[in-house]
Amino acid sequence: MIEGRYHMPYLREKLEHTSPAPVMIELGSSCRKGSLDEVRKWATDNHVDVVVNCTGLGSATLCNDNLLIPVRGRLVRVAAPWLKFGIYSPNKAHAYVGRDSVIIGGYREPLPSPLIQPIRPEQAENSHEATLDILERMGELWSGPLPSSPILEEWTGFRPHRDILRLELAWLCDQNGGRSIPIIHNYGHGSMGISLSWGTALDVVYLVTQALKASTGSCTQGLLAPGLEKLALQ
Predict the structure, then answer these.
(1) What main location does UniProt list (predicted)?
(2) Which of these, 152, 40, 140, lies nearest to 87 by C-alpha position?
(3) Which of 42, 68, 125, 222 is least surrounded by Cβ atoms within 10 Å, i.e. has the fewest?
(4) Burial, 15: exposed, middle or buried (Cβ in 10 Å; 0-12, 13-18, 19+)?
(5) DSSP string spanning 14-28?
(6) Cα–Cα dist 145/132, whole Å
(7) What are the DSSP E strand ranges found in 7-91?
(8) Are 211 and 182 in contact, with CB atoms under 8 Å apart?
(9) Do residues 152 and 79 lie in contact, with contact meaning Cβ atoms separated by under 8 Å?
């Protein structure tokens, strides 16, 4: 099983050490922009060729996208080194064996768009009642001792869900006739972020190459990633 807490540092280290060209990775608030027009101005001032937008839930306000909603999820990590297999039921619960713990989940709560109701701090707090509910449902699914294993961690987070993820090339156009900046949007993966990451990353590379070919300074029609055209029409 791939765990994000280990997978992301691995990818970063691999990129830094194996890229044929110099790579600079900055984590934090090096670029805080509240609108796409601010992103365009920043990209122009810094001579950026292409912008890739992977801001997750932040894209709701950044792109004024009311189709993107937060789905609250909860997980429980327990110490069960004896478990050597995964357990899954779409309607009950699931358990996946990680590197140093077993992850038990099965909680999905869609919330309103941040454009309608911003996420409140208390909504990100862990819930003992929700933890007990997850463990009880695991006990109903499997009669083994997993639900009574020592709890190592409780986690609450928000997954950026979109019925059709946004994966497309668009253009940040200057209404005053200045240079237009290509932007590739890549967000809305929901709970499938790691599973879809490799495929959507390849699509982003394709869209970047198309943007560089078409980057003439004019506002050009956008382009969906291959395969999304049919979904977008439904």
Answers:
(1) other
(2) 140
(3) 125
(4) exposed
(5) HHHHH-SS------S
(6) 14
(7) 51-53, 69-78, 87-88
(8) yes
(9) yes
Rounded Cα–Cα distance for residues 214 and 171 (Å): 11
Q: Which CATH superfamily, name and number, covers 4-66+161-233? A: NAD(P)-binding Rossmann-like Domain (3.40.50.720)
Please return the burial class of 49, using the count of CB atoms within 10 Å of its CB with bins 0-12, 13-18 and 19+.
Answer: exposed
Are the CB atoms for 117 and 111 separated by under 8 Å? yes
Q: Specify the 3-state DSSP secondary structure of 228.
A: helix
Whether 67 and 79 have beta carbons less than 8 Å apart is answered as: no
133: part of which helix (H) or strand (E)?
A: helix 128-141
Amino acid at 2: I
Chain region(s) in the chain for CATH 3.30.9.10: 70-159
Structure confidence by residue, pLDDT tens digits, 11-63: 989 988 888 877 777 665 555 668 999 999 999 999 999 999 999 999 999 99
To the question of pTM greater than 0.70 for the whole model, the response is: yes
Q: Give me 61's structure tokens.
A: 């306000």
State which fold the 70-159 domain adopts.
D-Amino Acid Oxidase; Chain A, domain 2 (3.30.9)
